[in-house]
Amino acid sequence: MCDQTSIYIHIPFCVKKCVYCDFYSKTDLSLIPGYINALQKEIEKRSGLKDAIDTIYFGGGTPSLLSAKEVETLLQTIGDCFSVASDVEVTFEVNPGTVDLNYFRELKNVGINRLSIGVQSFDDDKLKFLNRIHTAGQARNAIDYAGKAGFDNISMDLIYGIPFETKTAWLKDLKTAVTLMPPHLSCYMLTIESGTPLHEQLKKGVIRPLGTSDMTVLFKQTSQFLGEAGYDHYEISNFSKGRQNRSKHNSKYWDMIPYYGFGAAAHSYDKKTRSWNYRSIDAYIKDICSGRLPVEDRETLTSRQTMIEMIMLRLRTLEGLDLKKFTTLFCVSFETRFKDILDHILESSFGSVKDGRFALTLEGRAHLDSIVEAFAEKIL
Ligand SMILES: C[S@@+](CC[C@H](N)C(=O)[O-])C[C@H]1O[C@@H](n2cnc3c(N)ncnc32)[C@H](O)[C@@H]1O
Ligand SMILES: C[S@@+](CC[C@H](N)C(=O)[O-])C[C@H]1O[C@@H](n2cnc3c(N)ncnc32)[C@H](O)[C@@H]1O
Ligand code: SF4
């Protein structure tokens, strides 16, 4: 029998960098054809016909900078090198400043069946502050085109908690989002990553980030508002209309199911080992063209690392951690191993144990980082 697995393809190109983003991408678009060629070679080199691929994800960077022909070429190579399921979910990330109706029709024709649209906000001032290449009008058009081209599996990315953002302003963004009725929404709390222009602004005192308690208010407001609008808060940043509209691909990350990562800066996981490719387009292409795999490094997870990772990932989700599965994997019951922390969490209503699963409440998820840290300290 085939093993179910996934493919992630990294497209490290952007028209310009957004002030908050530290995902790997470059603005030299002339490198795209050579990169596609190298990607094909990497896929061929790592081919695995015994693996049944049921999700494929084009992420970035900006996948929507590729021509539909280039996307088709990559999907054909995957089809030649892997056993792709007939009902495979194929997600494609889109920047609203790079698309039109015809492009979406072409994407549909070459086999893309889920779009993740990087809207970020419907407020032009907020978009300008973030250094996005598009306006709110273009974001609305992108959603409209996606529907007209026949996509029904659409997700929207939004960012909240930028400096000076108020509860009212964020609520306005959420209200606009739900009127467009996407079946899936990702709402990300702004993180100020070191090395980004936003971090520079912070160091110079040009911006003052929102405090933790203001962020917590926005996080809870998001969950409450989207809950009332019919969305399940199924992962800390993700919301869907029913189970059928969850991201199958990302759900696999939270379930620790193996995946292939192709391209510069892409990560792969095979149940025991994590590996990652060079975070440089030049180094990636050079290795591939010399017949080597472009792996920068790999680490085999110890049982302790797997335990931390499983707790960290599962506590992000609505369903939480399967206690029986934990005992089978680690030969110790979760309740015994973490009695003190668990008692504290249950007493303070930050979590609950139901039907053999330990999950955080909304209040608990608002304190996810410190809760995960408490578990990690106990494991190390
Ligand atoms: C890596 S981007 C790729 C999507 C596409 N390039 C775009 O921006 O339209 C995926 C998503 O991550 C989120 N993101 C990236 N950096 C972030 C940060 N520092 N804080 C919060 N969200 C972030 C954004 O919502 C973005 O749409
Ligand atoms: C921030 S999430 C956005 C998910 C989107 N909201 C959705 O529901 O489909 C996706 C980003 O994570 C990063 N990413 C995901 N899987 C990856 C992998 N295997 N290797 C490297 N980066 C990855 C990419 O930058 C990608 O743009
Ligand atoms: S958020 Fe998207 S468009 Fe902006 S720099 Fe990051 S990957 Fe590129």
Automatic annotation (TrEMBL):
It is found in: Cytoplasm. One of its GO terms (cellular component) is cytoplasm. Belongs to the anaerobic coproporphyrinogen-III oxidase family. HemW subfamily. InterPro entries: Aldolase_TIM, Coproporphyrinogen-III_oxidase, Elp3/MiaA/NifB-like_rSAM, HemN_C, HemW-like, rSAM, rSAM_sf. Keywords: 4Fe-4S, Chaperone, Cytoplasm, Heme, Iron, Iron-sulfur, Metal-binding, S-adenosyl-L-methionine. Pfam families: HemN_C, Radical_SAM. One of its GO terms (biological process) is porphyrin-containing compound biosynthetic process. The keyword Cell membrane does not apply. Its main location: cytoplasm. This is Heme chaperone HemW. Probably acts as a heme chaperone, transferring heme to an unknown acceptor. Binds one molecule of heme per monomer, possibly covalently. Binds 1 [4Fe-4S] cluster. The cluster is coordinated with 3 cysteines and an exchangeable S-adenosyl-L-methionine. It comes from the Bacteria. Signal peptide: none annotated. It comes from Desulfobacula phenolica. Its cofactor is [4Fe-4S] cluster. GO terms for molecular function: 4 iron, 4 sulfur cluster binding; coproporphyrinogen oxidase activity; metal ion binding. Residues 1-229 form the Radical SAM core domain. PROSITE patterns: RADICAL_SAM.
